[in-house]
Amino acid sequence: MAKVHPLSDVQTESIGENTQVWQYCVVLKGAVIGDHCNINCQVFIENDVKIGDNVTIKPGVQIWDGVTLEDNVFIGPNVTFTNDLIPRSKKYPEVFAKTIIKKGASIGANSTIVAGNIIGENSLIGAGSVVTKNVPANTVWFGNPAKQKGSIDEKGKITYL
User: Fold this and answer.
1) Which residue pairs from 39-44 have beta carbons closer than 8 angstroms and sit at least 24 positions apart in sequence?
2) Would the pTM count as exceeding 0.90?
3) What is the rounded CA–CA span in Å between residue 40 and residue 114?
4) Chain-centroid distance, C-alpha 144
5) Alpha carbons 127 and 133: distance in angstroms, whole number
6) What's the Cα-to-Cα distance from 1 to each of 9, 29, 34, 143, rounded to whole Å?
7) Domain range annotation of the chain
8) CA angle 28, 32, 34 (to 5 degrees)
9) 22 pLDDT tier (thresholds 50, 70, 90)
10) Does domain 1-161 have CATH number 2.160.10.10?
11) Cβ(20)–Cβ(3) under 8 Å?
12) Interior CA angle at 14 toward 30 and 94, to 5°?
């Protein structure tokens, strides 16, 4: 059974076993969250969001419509996702751009992930990065705009370019 802090507003019923949602979170009714996730305080999750199993989301993150986080993903504090490439007040696209964070990927604190990109399996995005294009699996990226700086193996060992 999921544990939801009483100071959160969780509208979805699609939350997996042993998932923890901490205080001051808002999770809209269409969101789907897997098993064994840790959703830290002050996280907002919109309707068209899919979160896999064993995902960690640190405080201050908003996950907008069109974002998918696959299994074993780590989202650092204050990571920013976008979903509209030409945002205007009170004007919405017919469909929001889809962003996929693949299995085992980690995104460092204060990074921005521009809509419509895929972050590859087991990749690592360094803190403060701005991701403007697809990131291949098992690679390390950082900077603004983020650029590939190395590769990472299954044990977490980084080899820099």
Assistant:
1) 40/77, 41/5
2) yes
3) 22
4) 19
5) 17
6) 17, 18, 11, 40
7) 1-161
8) 135
9) very high
10) yes
11) yes
12) 20
